[in-house]
Amino acid sequence: MKVVFLGMNTSFSAVHFLALQTEHDVAAVFITKTPVSLKERLKKWIFRLTGYSSSGAFSLVKSCAVYNVPVYYQDSVNDAKSLADLKMLQPDIICMAGFSEKLSGKLLNIPRYGVINLHTSILPDYRGANPFFWMLRKDKVHAGCSVHRVDEQFDTGAILETISFDIYPGVNLHIYNTLASIEGAKLLLKVLRNFDSYPANESTKQGDGLNCRSPRKKDLVITPDLKLQQILWLYNAFSDVYLFSVEMSGQLKPVRKVSSGNFENSTSFKLSDGVIYLKVEK
After folding, report:
1. How many Å apart are CA 129 and CA 122, to the nearest integer?
2. Comparing C-alpha atoms, which of 254, 252, 258 is closest to residue 277?
3. Torsion of CA 115, 119, 122, 128, to 10 degrees
């Protein structure tokens, strides 16, 4: 099939693109423009100054260049230019992995067989953003991926296939996404190989499931009702991304270190099933 791929310039999207191009004609890749942070600009300047050619990142853009697939950068995939470009490409299907923009009805009607997306949870549970964080926060880890049809909402279209995989307790977001990209790429290819077996106008609703969002300050508070292993996993998985806190003496204090065992300058904090040791800012 003639495929257009929507993704981000990350290793997660790159793995799915590489899988697709082994079996299909990937006509183009669309990436929504994102602002380059001062930190990223500084890194590029240092690499250029030292003669070091790469940051070590495994990018979608580099993979596209290697396999001679054109990349379209757009402010929005739903804008007039993107829609015109997609119509010109005449894809049989659009595949998404790691792409976070909602699609308009006009875009959804362009490809012959519609749009499908790879999502990193077993739908209908944990649709939307940051599913892995919410699995840990709810203490219900069901690692897996889903391929579903795309409609004008986030992750609500008919589910075509799912896959589950095992993970070790404590794995962080990077490891989870690495495993999900490998398993998800295989699942995406399976769906495309068997695409004719799925009803063309399937309208089965997914049913109820948790709609995820980016964590807020209140979601990052360590509270007594949480379990010991749950906090250890959450902190190990996300403390490089988010700042956790704990309420002490009526104030929220940032947490700088978490451990299951006592350590120097630590503060004990009682949980529903034990005690955790924290280093907090005074």
Report:
1. 13
2. 258
3. -100
CB atoms within 10 A of CB 33: 9
pLDDT in tens, 133-183: 999 999 999 999 999 999 988 888 899 999 999 999 999 999 999 999 999
- How much is the pTM? 0.86
Q: How far is CA 241 from the centre of its chain?
A: 14
The CATH code of domain 2-212 reads 3.40.50.170
Cβ neighbours of residue 117 closer than 8 Å, sequence gap 6 or more: 95, 96, 97, 99, 147, 148, 149, 150, 155, 157
Q: In this predicted model, what pLDDT tens digit does every residue of 114-132 receive, in sequence order?
A: 999 999 999 999 998 899 9
Map tokens 């010991």 to a residue: 228
